[in-house]
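[audit] Reproducing an earlier prediction to check determinism. Same input, same settings, fresh worker. If the tokens differ from the archived copy the diff job will pick it up downstream; this log only records the rerun itself.
[audit] input (124 residues):
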Amino acid sequence: MKDKFINFRASEKEKKQLAILAKKAKMSQADFIRHAVFNKEIIVIDGLKPLQTELKRIGNNLNQLTTRSNMGHFSVIDLQEIKEQLGKIHEVLADLCDDKNEQLRSEMEHSDFVFDPERWKIGV
């Protein structure tokens, strides 16, 4: 029995887009949301928290450098260290994605899942 209400905030654009998508799918908005939430696999990649922290640090460093440069404290900035840090983060992300893709491929090979692109064809 569906007797509980769940409310969430959306922008006007999101609200209109939801109405359009639900109508095109010939579903109520509630059914469309339930289908989108419960009939899709959510992929979680562990190990991103340290990368997020490092990216925040790099962003803070860039902001500080930009502010000081705009104040005239210096005119040339060597960003080699930041470039190297971003390269390392990129490598870790690529490895995480490769690992997750390999895991998904393996799961797909050992399941009876069949992708039907017509089922998911909903234009905006």
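[audit] rerun output stored. Observation attached for the diff report: The longest helix spans residues 80-109.
[audit] end
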